[in-house]
Structure prediction request, 195 residues.
Amino acid sequence: MVHRNAPLSETGRLRLARCVVEDGWPLRRAAERFQVSHSTVWRWAGRYRECGAAGMADRSSRPQASPARTPVRTERRIVKLRVSERLGPARIAFRLGLAPSTVHAVLARYGCPPLAHLDRASGQRVRRYERAAPGELVHVDIKKLGNIPYGGGHKVLGRQAGRKTRSGTGYSYIHTAVDDHSRLAYSEIHADEKK
Prediction:
């Protein structure tokens, strides 16, 4: 995918390279015509000479080699400490003399869940319960909220003025239902708790 601010798409790169390689345009003239730097013109013309039209496609930005990557043996030690002793990235990093960010990256690469998602006793992932079909189990809850009169209550108007504007006081009740399978929530506000 072409960057949104890129001056050249694959078609534009191909036109640029053909102008230089096939039509013999000087680099500076092509750069001026396509409104890019002469080093960009030189790069795309070189790629066209090497690979032809196929060389105009975007290449992966992933490095071909990663010499500073953590060795596999160290990665296995990190995962072993996580599984056997259930330690977090900071404690594992301290034990092995590594940076916590490195340990975190290794744990993420191996798909190790955060400690908060694990059962403390067994070390297994916590599986939340979930019904098989929608509507099989619905959780219902009611929340009681105090009404504030129009214009504010006694905190805004003062005690005496707040007492005079008592219309609209009382409680409202938010009735909420959550489906256990889909986690779809529905809420309504009622004046009565039992409706």
